[in-house]
Specification:
Elements lengths: L2 E7 L6 H13 L5 E6 L5 H9 L2 E5 L32 E5 L3 E3 L13 E4 L7 E8 L3 H11 L9 H8 L18 E2 H8 L2 H7 L5 E3 L16 H11 L6 H22 L1
Parallel strand pairs: 1-2, 1-4, 2-3, 8-9
Antiparallel strand pairs: 4-7, 5-9, 6-7
Amino acid sequence: MNCAYVTLICNGDAYLPGVEALGESLKATGTSKLMVAMASADVSEETRARLEAQGWQIRDIAPLHKAGAQPLFPRFDDVFAKLRAWQLTEFDKVVLLDADTLVLQNIDELFLRPYFAAAPDFLMPDRFNSGVMVLDPSEETFARMVEVLDKAPTYDGGDQGFLNTFFADWFAMPVAHRLPAGYNLMHFILQFLRGHPVLQRSLEREAKVIHYAIQKPWHAAPQLSGAAQDWWQMYARVHPELDTDWRHRVHKLEDRTFDRVIEAFIR
């Protein structure tokens, strides 16, 4: 099969650090699969050149919006462009990864999963989280999505709510279509596992993809929701000028602060 890992960068260059760290994490797993970044027109030439130098193939995409959508967060404004992954018909199968994910282990086995596959959402496990999805590109499927986009409900105002409507039978599909939670593990859950020795020994090895859904590590505010060290260690491989001892200590402290807060609540 002709396969690729795909992500989306839009709304300018704000998610460049995320895509850089994601790409480096994929390469660190030893994968030989292509890395493709779908980029909207507002992504700068400098960013495009930087990503290409790091091994990403850039695919220009047009925006896609849902009429009347009320996104949960402002950053969801352009997320429907993610649906254009179904237009990448040069590939037989695509693993779509959000730009705020980080890969911890080789996940090439996902390309053997049947269409459509995704992991359960942390808040509503009978629905999937769209941060990691296995899909078969198809112009026909994309056309059907566009046809129903404006009238289909979306509980979060974004692509995840819409896709759960479009693939309403996902939870009832055979088990191979439901990825284990470790393929799309929220960063605060991973940090919780690490903070408790029993859970760490039994569950941490199952973590394959971290999803920084709450707090983005590259933002200026302290990263107090977990797994800061993982992201910064990978980002520092792209930007070695940032790999300083004091940064290691700061991010270790951030993660430890999360552990302390959780301990205070569960005692």
